[in-house]
Amino acid sequence: MTDLENDRLLRALERKPVDRTPVWMMRQAGRYLPEYRRVREQAGSFVNLMRNPDLACEVTLQPLERFRLDAAILFSDILTIPDAMGLGLHFAPGEGPRFEHPVRDRAAIRKLARPDMEAELGYVFEAVRRIRSALDGRVPLIGFAGSPWTLATYMVEGGSSKDFARIKGLAWDEPATLDELMAVLSDSLIDYLNAQIESGAQAIQIFDTWGGVLTPAHYRRFSLDPMQRILDGLIRERDGRRVPVILFTKAGGARLKALADTGCEAVGVDWTVDLASARELVADRVALQGNLDPAALLASPERIRAAVADVLESYGKGPGHVFNLGHGITPAVPPEHAGAMIDAVHELSPAMHE
User: Fold this and answer.
1) CB-based contacts of 170, cutoff 8 Å, min separation 6
2) Lower CB density within 10 Å: C or N end of the chain?
3) What mean pLDDT is reported for the chain?
4) pLDDT over 90 at 92, yes or no
5) How many whole angstroms separate alpha carbon 327 and alpha carbon 329?
6) Active site residues
C-alpha cells in the first residue's frame, strides 16, 4: 500500500471515519490565482499549458502551497480525448473551446477511432507521474475525465452551446448514431482513465457537466449507461488500495439515486440540492461531495464561514462527506476568500465526526 501523510479524502470516499471533513475545490488550479495566470501567460495559451507536463505539474501544486487542501487534482482539460481524435481543439477568446472539425453525422462518427494513449495523450500521463513524484505522499492525486455525453456535446455542437440543438436533435432523430459515438467515447475513456491510474492517479472524478439538460430516458441512455460502461472497465484497486470513483452530474439532483446505483464510491452534488435530502436519497450507500454555491465565495469571509457551517450541518454527522463547491471556482473569487472557506472547514467540521 502506498503511504500517504494525509489520506482523509480516500477514507471519506469509502465512507470510513475521519477526524474532519476533507476539502478540495473543483478547478482549484485556475484563473482566480495570480500565480496561475503568470504561468499561463508564460505558456502562451491554455493548450500549450496543459500539454506541458512540467507546467501542468507546477500549476497543479500551486493551490496546495496556498491552502490546506486534502487533495491535488490533475491540471488538464476534459476535451483531451476529442482533441486526440483529430477534431482540432482551440480556444477562441471570449468563446471558450471550439473544434475545427465537429462530428454531425454517422459518416463522421464512424471515422472516429480510439486514440493511441501514449502517442496522442502521453503528456497527460507524464504530468500525472511528475505530480505524484512532487507530492511525495503529501495528499492523494485525483485524475479525471469528462463524461461521454459531455464530450459529445462539444464534438457535435463544435464548442459550447446554450440549447444543444444539434446533439439533442441527433438524440431524437438518430439515437443509434449517437449510441455509436457514446461507445467509442466510453471505450476511449476507459483506456484514458486506466492510464491515469497506472501513472499514479489515486482517485477518479467523471465530470458529467451537461447531463442535466437531458430527459430522464435520454439521460439513462446517453449519459448514465455510458458512465456505467466506463465504471465497469476501470481499474478499481492499485497499490493495495481502492481507487474510488466520483460521478458528478451538474443539475443532476433528480439522478442522485441512479448515480449511486452504478457502484461508484461517491456522487458529486451541486448547490441546488440540499445535502440532507441527497443523503436520504442515496441512503448512505455512497459518499457525497459538495456543495457550496461557488458564488458564496464572492461574499465576505464572515458570510463564507456561515455558509460552510450550513453545508456541514446539512450533511450532518458521520462519515462520507467531502467538502467541495457545487461546481468549479470562478475567476473573480479573491484567493483569500477561498482560504476562508477552507479554514472554516478545518475549524468547524471536526464536530461532525465526534
Assistant:
1) 104, 156, 177, 178
2) C
3) 96
4) no
5) 7
6) 27, 31, 40, 77, 154
